[in-house]
Design brief:
With 404 residues, this protein is α/β, with parallel strands linked by helices. It folds into two domains: 6-26 and 262-395, Aspartate Aminotransferase, domain 1, CATH 3.90.1150.10; 33-260, 3-Layer(aba) Sandwich (Aspartate Aminotransferase, domain 2). It has twelve helices and 17 strands. The chain has a seven-stranded mixed sheet with strand order 2-10-9-6-5-3-4, with helices on both faces. A three-stranded antiparallel sheet has the order 8-7-14, with no helix packed on it. The chain has a three-stranded antiparallel sheet with strand order 13-15-17. The radius of gyration is 22 Å and the shape is globular. The two termini are 25 Å apart. The model has no long low-confidence stretch (mean pLDDT 96). Bound molecules: ligand T4K. Ligand T4K binds at residues 23-27, 78-80, 102-103, 105-106, 148, 174, 176-177, 198, 200-202, 211, 327, 331, 403-404. Ligand T4K is lined by residues 23-27, 78-80, 102-103, 105-106, 148, 174, 176-177, 198, 200-202, 211, 327, 331, 403-404.
Length: 404
């Protein structure tokens, strides 16, 4: 079934194009994962070792360190806790410079510990923190930079490293999106003082909930490992205040089962990226975010920008797609600096511009090449009937936000 007239569009009253919803962030439960996981869960139950640095967690840490290109890895219950442990283990205090264009969890990790996140604007080409703007934000209270490899695209790591060294700042990378990504042939996990990956359910490799701190600094790793487990360094020895950020054995098992499918998932995501890039090519005002030739990617986020030249604005296009069961998202609208949690008047024009343009389209193992072709054809069709769509949407009620 495809659409012939504007009134065939679901947003104008027609039937949705897809029977089942297509999601951004659908967990990748590929062939074999179920059996691998259930086998390991049986092992865990038989062993009666459920948490506290058990054998599954140790295996998971070795696998992640290998992929990250780092000497040390500490598994965590999630990336937000991992970032907090990294901040404490790297002894970052006072003010930390953070991009605003990120998931709120990045800024929260700092502010929840009593630090002040100082929001920095982004480079519009990469959506990552603009290194040219960092130095102007440094004050006598600044002790660190918390940069994000957004969408898995590596930050300007050399320039950030150079500034940090000269100004004696720590660098922590929020690598929540960046498992398996490299820049200039270097895996991003060994860069800065520490990097933190996420293995949340919505990440392409998942541990249900999970995170991992990776570093080449042995002393930092030792502090992080202890801080993750209440600061314990011996049975009755507590060397630092700590928290409970441990990964459970079942999460590690899920992480291991999911890591086994990593290459398959990256290949599927890459095919989808190629399909979307071809299918949306030539549409006015629509750009699929690409990658630099010296970067390696996991393609887990399919990021499109919809600018002023497009016949439909980003939000109208989102309504058109969601009505057809294409559950696109607007990550990370409106930017942390515009959230009630972070009142202030900082001006970040590139963050505002990106937040107004971005749209993430569904990808992952549950999205096949035929789905991608149909989504692209839908965008094309909606653009061809833009006048009717705009008129129809203007008179229709705003739908309730859809999740799940
Ligand atoms: N830094 C960055 C840059 C991050 O992006 C994140 C997390 C963090 C740090 C913190 O990492 P963690 O502490 O979580 O390890 C989701 C995730 O909850 C969040 O982990 C992720 N970033 C963010 C980008 O996406 P929401 O609010 O969009 O989640 P939600 O519940 O709307 O789920 C997204 C879509 O995924 C749903 O539309 C349906 C699908 N889904 C979701 C879940 C949980 C499923 O199909 N199955 C599921 O089990 O934040």
């Amino acid at each position: 079934m495809f659409k012939h007239e504007a009134s065939d569009l679901a947003v104008l009253g027609g039937p949705p194009l897809f029977d089942k919803r297509l999601y951004v962030g659908r967990p990748n439960v590929g062939r074999g994962l179920r059996d691998r996981l259930l086998g390991m869960v049986r092992e865990i139950l038989d062993s009666r070792w459920l948490s506290n640095n058990g054998p599954m967690v140790q295996r998971f840490e070795r696998r992640v360190a290998e992929i990250a290109g780092s000497e040390h890895c500490v598994a965590m219950c999630n990336a937000t806790a991992g970032l907090q442990v990294a901040i404490r283990a790297a002894r970052v205090t006072g003010e930390v410079i953070v991009p605003s264009f990120t998931f709120p969890g990045t800024a929260h990790a700092a502010s929840w510990l009593g630090l002040t996140p100082v929001f920095c604007d982004i480079d519009p080409a990469t959506h990552n923190i603009d290194p040219a703007l960092i130095e102007d934000l440094i004050t006598e209270r600044t002790t660190g930079i918390l940069a994000v490899h957004l969408w898995g695209r590596p930050c300007a790591v050399d320039r950030i490293g150079e500034i940090a060294e000269r100004r004696q700042l720590s660098v922590i990378y929020d690598a929540a999106h960046a498992l398996g990504c490299t820049t200039g042939g270097r895996p991003i996990g060994g860069l800065g003082d520490a990097s933190v990956y996420s293995f949340h359910a919505t990440k392409f490799v998942t541990a249900f909930e999970g995170g991992a701190l990776v570093t080449n600094d042995a002393a930092l790793a030792e502090r992080a490992r202890a801080m993750t487990n209440f600061g314990l360094t011996g049975e009755h020895e507590v060397s630092w205040p700590g928290t409970n950020a441990k990964m459970s054995e079942v999460s590690a098992a899920m992480g291991l089962a999911s890591l086994d499918a990593m290459a398959e998932i990256v290949a599927a995501n890459r095919d989808n990226w190629v399909g979307y890039s071809a299918g949306l090519a030539g549409l006015p005002g629509v750009t699929v975010l690409g990658f630099a030739p010296d970067e390696q990617h996991n393609y887990q986020y399919l990021v499109v920008e919809v600018d002023d030249r497009a016949p439909l604005d980003r939000d109208t296009l989102m309504r058109v797609l969601q009505a057809e069961k294409v559950m696109c998202r607007r990550y990370f609208y409106p930017g942390c600096h515009r959230l009630a949690a972070y009142p202030g008047t900082v001006s970040l024009p590139q963050t505002d511009a990106a937040a107004a343009r971005v749209l993430q389209l569904p990808t992952g193992l549950d999205v096949g090449p035929d789905d991608v072709r149909r989504v692209c054809a839908l965008v094309r069709f909606a653009f061809e009937h833009a006048d009717e769509v705009r008129q129809g949407v203007a008179t229709a009620r705003e739908p309730a936000p859809v999740r799940g």
